[in-house]
Fold Acetyl-CoA acetyl transferase.
Amino acid sequence: QASIHAGIPVSKPAHIINQVCGSGLRSVISGYQSIKLQENKIIVAGGQENMSRAPHAIFYREDKKLDENKLVDTMINDGLIDSFNNYHMGITAENVAEKYKISRDEQDLFALNSQEKTQKATNENRFKNELIKLKINTDDKNFLFEKDEHPRNNLNLEDLKKLNTVFKENGTVTAGNSSGINDGAAATILMSREEAELRGIEPLAKVVSWATCGVEPSLMGLGPIKAVNLALEKAEWKREDIDLFEINEAFAAQS
């Protein structure tokens, strides 16, 4: 649907990749590999999240005529539950914080710093050329979305300290130092340098290395640490060689 609505010819195939939070970057890697294998010359790759409209479902394939099955929130059940331990990914953040002795104060300070950097970048229009305004028309209202609604401007540490823990009694993970429920999408165009030069396009970036790895499900948040180090190793780079890290900040404890 996204491909056709974007005006891409119906003759061009499109497919969906699901690697939960890593789906968008996985699609970029898939596109990179396709170009390297000379299967395609140009790829549009990206990801989308629509958490606010995730449906509820009910198990209705039982032989029972009378059942007490309840509606299941697919946003939680399908994406945010560690199926091996049967608990929310927020508990895995608590596990990481406990294992590495990351205090509530440290997490709140990290979250505050992240929000302040976001506010500064927004005020300086750092992302102005990357954001696309979106008009939504309904029967009774018209909306114009032109900025990210999730960041909290003018947040302070006292506000964060007032929040209760969400996943564990006497825990450290709160709504303030966790990622939230959001909708959004992003995409990028990939092609070889030769193709870009042929079309007179100046590349914005180059894919140098990528990596993915597995970790214990109960410590889900440690995955990016090992993946980053592996990607650096493949590129024969050191962490000191990197000017800027962009991290998926699922939880302050993990980030």
Remarks:
- The longest helix spans residues 104-123.
- Helices lie at 2-5, 23-36, 74-77, 89-99, 104-123, 157-161, 193-198, 223-235.
- Residues 208-255 form one domain.
